[in-house]
Amino acid sequence: MTPNKQTYREATSKYDPVLGIECHVELNTNSKAFDNAPVQFGGQPNSAVTPTSAGLPGSLPTLNKKLVESGIRLGLALNCKIEQDSFFARKNYFYPDLPKAYQISQSNKPIAYDGYLDVELGDGEVFRVEIERAHLEEDAGKNTHVGGADGRIHGATYSLVDYNRSSVPLIEIVSKPLTGAGDRVAEVAAAYVQTLRDIAIALDISDARMERGNLRADVNVSLRPSPDAPFGTRTETKNVNSFRAIERAVEYEVARQADVLDSGELVFQETRHFHEEDGTTSSGRPKSDADDYRYFPDPDLPPVRPQIEWIEELRATLPEMPAAKRKRLRGEWKFTDLEMRDVVNAGALDLIDATVTAGATPAAARKWWMGELSRVANNEGVALAELAVTPLQVAELQGLIDSGALTDSLARQALDGVLAGEGDPAAVAESRGLVVVSDDGALTEAIQTVLAENPDVVEKIRGGKVQAVGALVGGVMKLTKGKADAARVRELIMEMLEQ
Amino acid sequence: MSDLIYKSALEMAEALQRGEVTSAELVNASLARIAEYNDVVNAFLTVDEEGARKTAEEVDALRAAGEELHPLAGVPIAIKDNIVTEGLDTTCASKILAGWKPPYDATVIAKIKEAKLPIVGKTNLDEFAMGSSTEHSAFGPTRNPWNTGLIPGGSGGGSAAAVASYMVPLALGSDTGGSIRQPGAFTGTIGVKPTYGAVSRYGLVALASSLDQIGPVARDISDAAALQELIAGHDELDSTSLPADPADLQGAIEDRLAQGGRGLRVGIVDQFLGEGFQREVQENFNRAVEDLREAGVEVVHVSCPSFDYALPAYYLIMPAEASSNLARFDGMRFGLRVVPDVPNPTASDVMKATREAGFGDEVKRRIILGTHVLSAGYQDQYYGSAQRVRTLIRQDLDKAFELADVLLAPSTPTTAFPIGARIDDPIAMYLNDVATIPANLTGVPAMSIPNGVDDSGLPTAMQVIAPVGADDQMYGVGALIESLVSKRVVAPPHAIVISEGDAK
After folding, report:
1. Helix B385-403 crosses helix B310-325 at what angle (to 10 degrees)?
2. Nearest-CA distance from B82 to chain A in Å?
3. CA B232 vs CA B46, B129, B181, B226: distances in Å
4. Higher model confidence: residue B24 or residue A326?
5. For a designed S-S bond to A484, which of A480, B103, B161, B343 qualifies (C-beta 3.0 to 4.6 A apart)?
6. pLDDT tens, residue by residue, A159-184
7. Given this model, what pLDDT does residue B428 score?
8. How far is CA B31 from CA A360, A450, B34, B58, in A?
9. Pairing relationship of beta strands A81-82 and A89-92 according to DSSP bridges
10. What DSSP assignment string belongs to A6-68?
């Protein structure tokens, strides 16, 4: 794995990169694509298996209607046409984790075709990625090689096969070649997959978690000398499993191919593997266009002919798509572009939306989720949505501040209690004895103590440096364990110093 | 008691209900007959004495306790060994599956078990149901009970021979291109291919999914009807299973016999007359048609020109689907595994060695043919055009059924031929199925009925072919033919004719 001679930017200034992405989305149906075994992540190997998903002789597939429904809904969300005379085909090939020695997939009549997805980059620039097709298929099982280094088959003494994943439903979305993105092609690749994920989640057809393999992307890259030249030879980097990795893989591959072409060599058509540790790709197996899977319609399954009425029914129930929702909320909330982008990147959009719905102002909701809660989530290494606090509780916390029952500082302490599972904010405030000290007598006593301890600060303020009062307010807050009303403390200090 | 073994299944059932015999006695008689003749006939690959006796005892106990039972409860049955039976070997007569005990039951087996018919064993077949003589079994050929020097037909030779030799009154077969009807014709038994989808295929080890159909083998039509009623019906586990409720076949038989030939119009398919058909086969067919005419049936001639292309179309579609269906036999999960003697064998090495050792020549021939016809560049030329022929045949049949209620044709071009006569000539072997194949390509029901004997005393047979879903009509006409031709039909010999050199 030698480093590239030129950078990604140098490469994109010389060549026109062409991008194609194939995404596999694992669906969250209750049962498998072609039999009634449950879909489950992990679990005892081969515990979610019927004769059909084990491919036993005599077993037959039956179609899960939810699979077709998910395909149509995703197709509609991707602005696709829906095929009304679709069918399932057999894709014949031998592999130990493919129990029937064929995969049931769709061939030349996928359920959805000819669509597009508008992808927005960080700075708001939009690229339209055209979609060739979205087709339905089943997953294969999983091999575990025992005895080889890093679980690889090479050197393994035996292999274990787990069919829990066999026949788990998948949708494969194939983009058309995207051209003209120039040095933004890597960003587009990552943003495209991210947008697809958001849509799958909004449709509730998949958990779409890349780290679990619910969402897998194969990235095709080729270079050509100019936009009017024919496409160059492409490589396919398989199973890149994070958005950042997609971006890096494209960057590396563009620069690598530019090096190859610059030196007068030819790019090999092959699959490649991405390496997280150094951001490089390495050669996998050669892949020719002549793979002969001997597709033919699966005679065990009748054709799929979704009625127009059903399609329209599904169209009517589509939720608001994430991009449209972002656009609407940005307008409603009056966030700046930068604020909005941070919110989206933090995965806080829906949480803020729910917090606003529960009664908080957009600004307050954003302050909580992007501030204190982001800090906690970051410390604990979890996503915002996984924190043990609901948008309703956040709105309640803010309400306690607005009504003067808690100060910001007390509210943060109340949040600690909520996160620790002690109950709703008001209850936590009560049980933890979080009460604002607004009794001027008590405050005056504390202020006098602080003034006596900080004669130099007092001098500064009297000398006109009014902003130095913050230090004194802080001292009082510390002394009262955060229970004081900071605004009132400031007022009292100023009054006392003017005397 | 000794004569009971020669009775029909319904006669046995009546005797059971009247308390004249017990199921245990019937099963014992069946097992004794198998013990006496199976060494020569080789109809059974597996005999399940224990299981059959257990079911029989259970039936007898339930009957003694006055329980309501299925009419056929207690009547022994045999199962073609490509139908999955939980815990009992299912080999498809292939080395690659030798010793495989499935962990589940085919839907038809579940129904048979629920109705409590003792399953006495699994019958021989051409390996994976590929063949027309049962000579392609990895466990030796089955012999024809009429004369053990002859083939019993294929691929369901085991089921046909088991019924023809009175080892059991009933058996299940599978018919992809004639594998129930053609051995029926060669052994003088009734063989029925129901409408595609009328009987669930779940648990039938697939040869060609769009053509395969499980059906009954019996010695008379009423028995076949009773068995088909038992196994038919919609099955959620089979997406190609028909939604309709199974037809009242026994009722249709009674109605037709009461009505005679009146109001019935039958069509003679011109394409199945003349050239290539043995003289006596043709003569007996003509006589049966004459009998029908005399009984008041209107006889018309219909032409189905596309039938001339049925055989070639079949021999493209069948191997194409078979090549895919048989790909799962790779030595990875069940059955035979051969690890070749090479350093660091790969999964691919194991698959190749297993398939090389596990499959017989005919199976390999069809896998190679099927792989070729599906391969890039040839798919439309072969598989695609075969599918178009299929559509033409369906259209021809639709037109024919506008002119006639059912169609008639000989079941096979010839009577049973000697073992070994065609084994080295695949094309000659394939020609046996010329008259049975159109029904599989179109999904229509068809049955084979004995209609006389040839000059050597071997059975000849004819088919009744009905429109999709008209199984009841087919059974009615079949019963009428059975009653009309009975005077010329010879029952299978009680004493099996053992040809020279075949003695145990």
Report:
1. 130
2. 8
3. 25, 21, 18, 10
4. B24
5. A480
6. 888 999 999 999 999 999 999 999 99
7. 86
8. 83, 107, 5, 17
9. unpaired
10. S-HHHHHHHSEEEEEEEEEEE---SB-SSSSPBP-SS-STTSS--TTTTT-TT------HHHH
Q: Which residue from B minimizes the CA distance to A299?
A: B210
Alpha helices in B116-167, H assignment, sequence order: 157-164
Query: At residue A313, what is the residue type?
Result: E
Closest CA relative to residue B117, chosen from B165, B159, B156, B168: B168
Question: Coil, strand or helix: which one is A380?
Answer: helix
Angle, alpha carbons B347-B348-B349 (nearest 5°): 90
Share of chain A above pLDDT 90, in %: 64
Closest chain A residue to B347, measured at CA: A96
CB < 8 Å from A in window 201-230 of B:
201-206, 208-210
C-beta atoms of B210 and A161 within 8 A: no
User: How far apart are the CA of A83 and the nearest CA of chain B, in angstroms?
Assistant: 21
Look at chain B and count its residues: 504
State whether B104 and A56 contact (CB < 8 Å): yes
Q: How far is B205 from chain A (nearest CA, A)?
A: 4
**How many CB atoms sit inside 10 A of residue B270's CB?**
14
* Partner residue opposite B240 with nearest CB, options A58, A102, A300: A300
Please name the residues between 402 and 461 in chain B that touch chain A, using a CB distance below 8 Å: none
A28-52 residue pLDDT tens: 999 999 999 999 877 899 999 999 9
B329 contacts in chain A (CB < 8 Å): 57
Residue with tokens 């094309």: B427
pTM score: 0.88
What positions of B carry a catalytic annotation?
Answer: 80, 155, 179
Query: CB distance B237–A60 less than 8 Å?
Result: yes
Q: Would you say residue B246 has pLDDT above 90?
A: no
Question: pLDDT, tens digit, for every residue of B320-370?
Answer: 999 999 999 999 889 999 999 999 888 899 999 999 999 999 999 999 999
